[in-house]
Design brief:
The protein contains 16 helices and two strands. It is mainly alpha-helical.
C-alpha cells in the first residue's frame, strides 16, 4: 500500500491510499471476510426474531414494532450525530474502524441475550419478581427483556452497519466500487445460503446454541478484519460545527442533506423502499409459515435457492453499474420488485410457487441493492459521505417507525391475512420508482 498526499484526488486512490494489484486483493479478501461473518450473524437476528415472537404469542402489532420500529427509533435519534462524529473523527486506527471494533462485541452480546431471554426471564421472575409482584407473569418478564435486548441490538448494529459501509467507501477505489459491491453481495449471498441451509431449520429448536455460537464467531471474525484493514490519512477537520444545541444540530443536519433536489428525492425513494421491504419482511416470512404451512426446512431451502440464483446476477449488475448509470439499474429493480409483489399476491398458493417467487425475487433485489448503493456513493459528497449515507437510514428508518406501526395494525385488522402484505409492498414500490425517476432526470447534468 502506498501513501500520498491526503489531498490527493486521483480516481486511483481513496483519501491517501493507493494499491498494487496484490494489495487490492488482500484488502478485498479481508473486507469480504468481514462481510461473510456480518451477514451470517445478522441472519440469526433477522430470521429468529419474528418466528420467536410468534412462538411466544406476541401480537402482530408488537412483531412489527420490534422487527422494524425500534430500528427506526435508534437511527433517527442517534445516527445523525454518530455519522458526523465519525466523519470528523481522527484516531490512530482511522475514523471508521474504532467504531466497528468497540460495537462488535456489544452487538454480539445483545443477540446472545435474545437467545437466552426465556431462561434468564424465568430466573429473574422466580428470584426477583414473584416474591414482590406476584401478578406480573413470567411471559411479561420475557417479552420485556426481549424489548430491551432488541433495542440494544439495533443501537449497536446501527453503528456497525453504517460504519462498515462508510469504511468501504473510504478504502475502496471509486472506479471499481460497483464491482466490489457485487463481490460483497456474492459473499453475503453465500453466507446467507449456508445459514439458511444448515442453521435456519434449527434456529428455534437450538435457539441458545445458535445465538451463542454465531455471536462468538462473529466477534472474532470481525475483529480480525478490523486489525487487518488499514485506513489512510484524512484531511484535517476545519470546523467542528455548531454545538449550540441538540435540536439546532439536527436542523443543520437535515438542512444540509435536503438542500439539493437530487438528494431530497433520493432520500424519499429510499424511504418508500424501506416501507415496501422493511415493514413487510416479517409478515412475508409469516405468510410462508402460517398461510402456506411450509416447514422450517422448506423455508430454509427456498431461501437458499434464491440466494444461489442471485450469485451470477451480482457480477452482471456490478459490471452494468460501472459501465452505465446505476440509477437506471435501480429504477429497473424497483419496477421489477413491484411486478413481483403483484404476481405473488395472485399466484402463490403452495411450496412450488413460493420457491419460484424466492428465486425470481432475486432479480429486482440485486438490481436495487447494487444500483442504489453505487448511486449514493456517486451522488453524495465524499468528505461528508458518512453524514449523507446516514441520512438515508435516518429517513428510511424514520419511515419504518410509522410504516411498521401501520403494517402491524393492518395485519391485526385483517385478522392475520398475510397475503395482503404483497399489495402493501406493491404500492410503495410504485412510489419509489416515481421518485427515483426524478433523481435520474436531475442526475443527467451530473453524469451520475
Amino acid at each position: 500500500m502506498h501513501l500520498s498526499s491526503p489531498h490527493n484526488t486521483s480516481d486511483k486512490g481513496v483519501n491517501s491510499l493507493h494499491y498494487s494489484k496484490k494489495e487490492l486483493t488482500v484488502l478485498f479478501s479481508w473486507l469480504l471476510w468481514g462481510d461473510f461473518a456480518f451477514v451470517f450473524f445478522e441472519n440469526v437476528f433477522g430470521k429468529l426474531l419474528p418466528l420467536f415472537l410468534k412462538e411466544l404469542q406476541v401480537s402482530n402489532f408488537m412483531i412489527g414494532m420490534l422487527s422494524g420500529s425500534t430500528v427506526g427509533l435508534v437511527n433517527v435519534f442517534f445516527l445523525p450525530n454518530i455519522s458526523q462524529w465519525s466523519d470528523s473523527f481522527r484516531g490512530r486506527w482511522g475514523r471508521r474502524i474504532p467504531f466497528l471494533f468497540w460495537a462488535t462485541p456489544l452487538t454480539a452480546l445483545s443477540v446472545i441475550l435474545v437467545g437466552y431471554a426465556p431462561e434468564t426471564g424465568s430466573w429473574i421472575h422466580l428470584h426477583f419478581v414473584l416474591p414482590f409482584f406476584p401478578k406480573i407473569t413470567v411471559e411479561n418478564i420475557i417479552v420485556g427483556q426481549l424489548c430491551l435486548w432488541v433495542l440494544a441490538f439495533n443501537f449497536f448494529n446501527m453503528i456497525l452497519v453504517n460504519s462498515f459501509n462508510w469504511l468501504v467507501c473510504d478504502v475502496v477505489p471509486p472506479y471499481i466500487i460497483a464491482r466490489f459491491l457485487s463481490w460483497f453481495r456474492v459473499i453475503g449471498t453465500a453466507s446467507t445460503c449456508l445459514f439458511m441451509w444448515y442453521i435456519f431449520p434449527y434456529i428455534l429448536t437450538y435457539r441458545k446454541e445458535v445465538c451463542l455460537g454465531v455471536g462468538v464467531f462473529y466477534t472474532i471474525a470481525f475483529w480480525l478484519m478490523c486489525l487487518k484493514v488499514k485506513e489512510g490519512e484524512y484531511p484535517p477537520v476545519l470546523s467542528k460545527g455548531d454545538n449550540s444545541g441538540f435540536l439546532k444540530s439536527f436542523g443543520m443536519y437535515f438542512k444540509e442533506c435536503l438542500k439539493e433536489p437530487i438528494h431530497r428525492n433520493f432520500f424519499i425513494a429510499n424511504t418508500m423502499m424501506s416501507a415496501a421491504t422493511g415493514s413487510a419482511g416479517a409478515f412475508i416470512l409469516l405468510f410462508s409459515k402460517e398461510t402456506l404451512n411450509l416447514s422450517m426446512d422448506d423455508l430454509g431451502k427456498a431461501f437458499a435457492y434464491g440466494a444461489v440464483g442471485s450469485t451470477i446476477l451480482f457480477f452482471i449488475v456490478g459490471w452494468i453499474c460501472d459501465k452505465i448509470s446505476p440509477l437506471l439499474v435501480s429504477i429497473f429493480g424497483v419496477v421489477a420488485y413491484a411486478a413481483t409483489m403483484l404476481g405473488a399476491y395472485f399466484w402463490i398458493h403452495g411450496k412450488t410457487a413460493w420457491i419460484v417467487y424466492s428465486v425470481l425475487g432475486t432479480v429486482p433485489s440485486v438490481a436495487w441493492v447494487i444500483g442504489s448503493v453505487t448511486a449514493g456513493m456517486r451522488i453524495f459528497p465524499r468528505e461528508k459521505y458518512g453524514q449523507f449515507s446516514a441520512g438515508l437510514n435516518v429517513f428510511g428508518c424514520g419511515g419504518l417507525i410509522f410504516f411498521n406501526f401501520l403494517s402491524g395494525k393492518f395485519m391485526d385488522l385483517s385478522e392475520s391475512n398475510y397475503r395482503l402484505i404483497f399489495l402493501w409492498s406493491f404500492l410503495f414500490f410504485v412510489l419509489a420508482a416515481f421518485y427515483l425517476w426524478k433523481v435520474y432526470r436531475d442526475s443527467l447534468s451530473l453524469e451520475v
